[in-house]
Write a structure and sequence with these properties.
The chain is built from 13 helices and 15 strands. It is of the alpha+beta class and about 425 residues long.
């Protein structure tokens, strides 16, 4: 959440920052500014009435001390009228404060001043490509065709069970999914220094508000009918980041680095007709998520390390990929700076996002009231939060099939996975 003091002090700078994300956010900013003007005016009126009440109370005491009962009685009548005015003013102030509190969470984070400006995906910056794309002596298939041909992906059975945009993995397919999760967790914990967490897959509304999915993106969430409702997590970012909600951490405990495998659940609202084939955009998918909790001055460097940690999985699997810096118009709601990793998919002849690594600054911490205290005992400060996929498992599964396929329809198992798979080839 943006600091209302920042919005008051620098409305033009905030407008420029939000405008770089897209003009759709400016009406929300106008509503916040209007509500804040009303709140500020009501606060000034309430404080003036309270000051008046204090002056009148002082007069009453002075008249009583001087035994001027008539004068004291007259002023007491005035005090009663002020009391009613204050009560009315405080009710108005409370209503305006609630209105402002409801509007502020709708505003996205301000982009980092260093972030590339742009309107959308076409304006993202390709920073570099890693790994050589394989030269095929045959026309490579996409992962959907490969998986069905090998009998390891069964979309028809999944549709009978759950409907469209679900996948059922059989035999070596289920083992490959499990092996990828194990490889990612082993590398991130043993080599990259993360603490493994296995969090709940259901969270409350406060957790989703803390990381920014609520209130703006509720249509993309699966919600239970319980009261109060619980929500299936769209990413492990939600429970991992909210582990510090309401906490005041000690400086020496930072940074904190967490890794978690979870299933993730998304309605994919607004994606009708997009990527309906295969594993790219499903309602349920597996992901290994990485989260950092840092001091403000360390978060920029932490983002570089987070991205590098996600890249270690792609390097271990020897999958060609590229690194993008997202422009302001393509960044997520809570992000101030984002790098995407895109893996090469020869069956589609295109790159596909497989990880998004973001620095959210204090945006989520302010929503969660997550703070830390420095060793010198100064007042508390908000932590900075970062998150990234390390990696999206289903998309990694698809990339392995497409990049390691053979002309006979079999798939060679990447060397890094063979100890988990117990074989070097997937075949009929």
């Amino acid at each position: 959440m943006l600091d209302i003091k920042l919005i008051r002090a620098n409305p033009d700078a905030v407008r420029a920052g939000l405008g770089s994300r897209g003009a759709q956010y400016l009406p929300d900013l106008d509503k916040v500014l209007a509500a804040d003007r009303g709140y500020t005016a009501a606060l000034a009126e309430t404080e003036a009435l309270r000051s008046w009440r204090n002056e009148v109370s002082k007069k009453i005491q002075e008249f009583k001390a001087a035994k001027k009962e008539a004068e004291a009685k007259a002023v007491m009548a005035e005090a009663n009228s002020i009391k009613e005015a204050i009560k009315s003013s405080e009710l108005t102030l409370s209503a305006l404060e609630k209105e402002l509190d409801a509007l502020l969470p709708v505003l996205p984070n301000l982009p980092d001043p260093k972030a590339a400006r742009g309107a959308g995906a076409d304006d993202n910056k390709v920073l570099r490509e890693e790994g050589a794309k394989r030269e095929f002596s045959f026309k490579p298939l996409d992962h959907h065709a490969l998986g069905e041909g090998l009998g390891i992906l069964d979309f028809e059975a999944a549709a009978r069970l759950s409907g469209s945009r679900f996948a059922l993995l059989r035999g070596a397919g289920a083992r490959l999914e499990r092996s990828l999760i194990q490889l990612m967790l082993d590398m991130h914990t043993a080599e990259n220094g993360y603490t493994e967490i296995f969090p709940p897959f259901l969270v409350n509304a406060e957790a989703l508000t803390g990381t920014g999915q609520l209130p703006k993106f509720e249509e993309d969430l699966y919600r239970t009918a319980s009261e109060p409702p619980l929500y299936l997590i769209p990413t492990a970012e939600v429970p991992l980041t909210n582990m510090c909600r309401g906490e005041v951490l000690k400086e020496e405990k930072l940074p904190q680095k967490f890794a978690a495998y979870t299933a993730c659940f998304r309605q994919e609202a607004g994606s009708y007709g997009k990527d309906t084939r295969g594993l790219i955009r499903n309602h349920q998918f597996n992901k290994v998520e990485l989260v950092w909790i840092t001091k403000p001055e360390e978060s920029a460097a932490a983002l570089e390390k987070l991205r590098a940690d996600a890249e270690t999985i792609l390097r271990a699997l020897r999958l060609p990929y590229r690194v993008l810096e997202l422009c302001t118009g393509d960044m997520g709601f809570s992000a101030a700076m984002t790098y995407d990793l895109e893996v090469w998919m020869p069956g589609e002849n295109r790159f596909r996002e497989i990880s998004s690594c973001s620095n959210c600054g204090e945006f989520q911490a302010r929503r969660m009231n997550a703070r830390f205290k420095r060793e010198d005992g100064r007042k508390t400060e908000f932590v900075h939060t970062l998150n990234g996929s390390g990696l999206a498992v289903g998309r990694t599964f698809a990339a392995v099939l497409e990049n390691y396929q053979e002309e006979d329809g079999s798939v060679t198992v990447p060397e890094a996975l063979r100890k988990y798979m117990g074989t070097d080839k997937i075949e009929l």
